[in-house]
């Protein structure tokens, strides 16, 4: 890190600290999004007339209290941030050496509401993990995952309009498929009646009163999260 980088980062942390002491509202996901975009823009390096290289590995540091709050949001938050950053890089015509990887760390020197982003460019082997977001919680999916009201379901949903084994999601490592398991009230996929269909990323499944969003998130190979 150069002298100018150190000065700018120190100034930014000072400003963050002022707002944190004033409002004490805790860190918000939208602030992380803005900080990631700013980090990418700051470290954009032209390597050719039509090629601008930006970092792809990001460590977001925050207070222990904020870290606990972000952890409660689960992998869905990291997946959403990764998707937003990927789209932003594409819009700006930035290039990365491999898909972006974002992780959170606790920093005891940061107070509630403050954050510090460190970035680097490194080739990272990633694996794509399917998840299902239900009522603000993120559930990891296996090769075959049954969703229903009964205890025998892999993901149990407390909804009287859902059958004990309502629907299932099958993942082959690259693609997903959703299947209704002969439920009493049926299921929908993106508003259309579901019997059996491919499940694109960001699709919305509805069963009873419960809305479920299917996502695929990037993780470094071997990440145990």
TrEMBL record:
Protein name: FhaA domain-containing protein
UniProt keywords, alphabetically: Phosphoprotein
Keyword Ion transport annotated: no
SUPFAM superfamilies found in the cross-reference section: SMAD/FHA domain (SSF49879)
SMART domains: FHA
InterPro entries the record matches: Cell_Proc_Reg/RNA_Proc, FHA_dom, FhaA_N, FhaA_N_sf, SMAD_FHA_dom_sf
Membrane-spanning parts: none
Domain FHA, residue spans: 145-194
A family per Pfam: FhaA_N
